[in-house]
Design a protein that fits this description.
This protein is α+β, with helices and mostly antiparallel strands. It has 16 helices and 24 strands.
Length: 581
């Protein structure tokens, strides 16, 4: 039976339809009156078609963004009216009948064609209109294609797609949980999964060799440009009998494939194997564990050298430096100094290397003459170089150096264009000391295997223990975290003991893993690249909300549906909840 609204979608119409009677349906994108002859730009999900209206009665009452069905005869356009911007630009549909399928009753809050220029809160309140915008819609279609490819690629690589629970137990580690009260069990709660961590490990214990899923994850975190509040999706995968290097190869295979397929034409993508950079090296050379390798600048440590000089502000501090070969005006130096003070630095020392290899700059007089050649060699300086200095406690010196490196790279146009530069960051510290409580806690994932196993836990200072833990970073964005898992119950008990959790807590909070590891758990490892961030990078968007169909706002609200909202007293009573003032 023929569809009563349309017999073509707008990507299917062509010059072969000229002379035929057709039905098309969609939304009124634009109405143009050319005096006696009017035109409608009809839009559906697939394209745009010009509708010509020679009977003015047909146009009466028609408004922009109304949903209509048009029946008419397909015509060839006059050559001078061709529109090369659309696929159907050489044809038009002469309307004989127009049926309004969905009327517009209210004033449009914005023009759909320019919705990306509208305030974000308005766009999100009327997201169903915003999604009619071609660019916004194309992002969601693009997202679907990427996810479809990921599924196909992972299956081809021998991974089995398995869904894990959404209602699970709350965990004492990681970010803040979203909790769900239980109606049946008074005073008890489920949590939405921050990640399928325990379940995917239990699948390995169950004997599944390679698992993956496009996993929804929920964390009660504040929004950032690269982080959506509330929920996000990741390509979660785990492998049995796998080492760190096995996971690296799997990650490289799937990420290289998806970026080579979907990156803009002419882009350069890092080939496998990706560079592997230790956390310690990353913090020294880049000032961050999320380095952007498109930036050629590197940070060097000059602490020891300046302890032998007479510049008092550097003595007793960690001193980092960034050198750059570029012409910089006085105005540039002033702007860079303003940037430095804006991020909390007391100033920004520098030296310029003159043609005779002498120095010019405020720090020159504090370097003894006999040590200047040593410094030229230490920093690898050449004529025309400028070197900037950052001095503070080690963590702050690293942070400042990283920020200056990024600012120099961006402002001097040094960032590689049309490139996706991947690297692994590994050898993260297993533990860290809380600056307020001074207690030892896990740095990242508590389920990671400590390097050196039980022996290192028993004999080393916890702050010196490294974990088999790693991130994938692309263009300064953390795409993925992962680890070789701790699959040994004894090591697990000791690891949690060091972090302040006794075996009772381990049994209570992680009982499934604790019990499962007593029944022959295989070595296993995995990671979970973030899908939203991946698509944001591929689509060239600055904000992650641009690649999510119905994102929350930056204040964690669904402005369209009004969440979070209030519930009735009866609903609260059913789950044994009383709201305090």
């Amino acid at each position: 039976m023929e569809n009563i609204y349309r017999n073509r979608t707008l990507d299917q119409v062509s010059e072969q339809d000229i002379g035929q009677t057709l039905k098309a349906a969609g939304w009124v994108e634009n109405i143009r009156d050319h005096g006696g002859v009017s035109f409608i730009d009809l839009r559906d999900m697939y394209g745009v078609l010009q509708v010509v209206i020679r009977n003015p009665e047909l146009l009466k009452g028609i408004k922009k963004e109304e949903c209509i069905s048009v029946e008419g005869i397909m015509e060839k356009r006059d050559e001078e009216t061709y529109n090369p911007k659309i696929q159907s630009g050489t044809i038009e549909l002469e309307a004989h009948a127009i049926t309004v399928l969905g009327q517009v009753y209210a004033q449009l809050p914005f023009e759909v064609a320019t919705s990306k220029e509208v305030r974000e809160d308005v766009r999100l309140k009327y997201r169903y209109l915003d999604l009619r915008n071609q660019k916004v819609r194309d992002n969601i279609i693009f997202r679907s294609k990427v996810i479809s490819f990921l599924r196909e690629k992972m299956t081809d690589m021998g991974f089995l797609e398995i869904q894990t629970p959404i209602l699970c137990a709350s965990s004492p580690e990681g970010a803040r949980d979203y909790i769900v009260p239980s109606r049946k069990y008074k005073g008890k709660f489920y949590a939405l999964p921050q990640a399928p961590q325990q379940y995917k490990q239990l699948l390995m214990v169950s004997g599944f060799d390679k698992y993956f899923q496009i996993a929804p994850c929920f964390r009660d975190e504040d929004a950032r440009a690269d982080r959506s509040p509330g929920e996000f999706y990741q390509l979660d995968f785990e492998m049995s009998f796998a080492t760190q290097e096995d996971v690296f190869k799997a990650g490289e295979e799937v990420l290289t494939a998806v970026f080579e397929k979907f990156a803009p034409e002419g882009s350069s993508v890092t080939k496998a194997p990706y560079p592997v950079i230790s956390y310690k090296q990353a913090m020294l050379e880049f000032g961050t564990d999320k380095p952007d390798l498109r930036n050629p600048l590197r940070i060097i440590d000059v602490t020891e050298f300046f302890q032998r000089c007479t510049f008092k502000p550097f003595i007793g501090k960690t001193v980092r430096a960034v050198k750059v070969h570029a012409d910089m005006s006085k105005g540039f130096h002033e702007k860079l100094l303003k940037f430095a003070t804006g991020i909390g630095m007391g100033g920004l020392g520098y030296l310029e290397v003159l043609p005779d290899m002498s120095f010019k700059g405020p720090i020159d007089k504090f370097i003894p003459e006999e040590m200047k050649k040593e410094f030229l060699e230490l920093a690898g300086l050449e004529t025309g170089d400028t070197i900037f200095f950052m001095a503070d406690k080690e963590d702050r010196a690293a942070f400042f150096a990283g920020m200056i490196r990024t600012e120099l790279g961006e402002k001097l146009g040094l960032i590689e264009k049309n490139a996706y530069r991947f690297c692994y960051i590994n050898d993260f510290p297993m533990y860290e000391r809380d600056p307020e409580t001074k207690k030892i806690g896990f740095t990242h994932n508590p389920f990671s295997m400590p390097q050196g196993g039980l022996e290192s836990l028993n004999t080393k200072d916890p702050l010196d223990i490294l974990a088999y833990q790693y991130d994938i970073v692309c263009n300064g964005v953390e795409l993925s975290s992962g680890a070789v898992r701790n699959h040994d119950m004894q090591i697990m008990v000791k690891a949690f003991e060091i972090a302040g959790y006794d075996e009772t807590v381990l049994k209570e909070k992680f009982g499934a893993l604790y019990n499962a590891f007593q029944f022959g758990a295989p070595p296993h490892a995995g990671m979970a690249p973030g899908i939203d961030r991946m698509i944001m990078l591929l689509a060239g968007e600055e904000n992650i909300r641009e690649v999510i169909a119905f994102p929350m706002s930056g204040t964690a609200q669904d402005l369209m549906c009004g969440a979070p909202n209030t519930v009735t007293e009866q609903q609260l009573r059913e789950v044994h909840i009383k709201v305090r003032d």
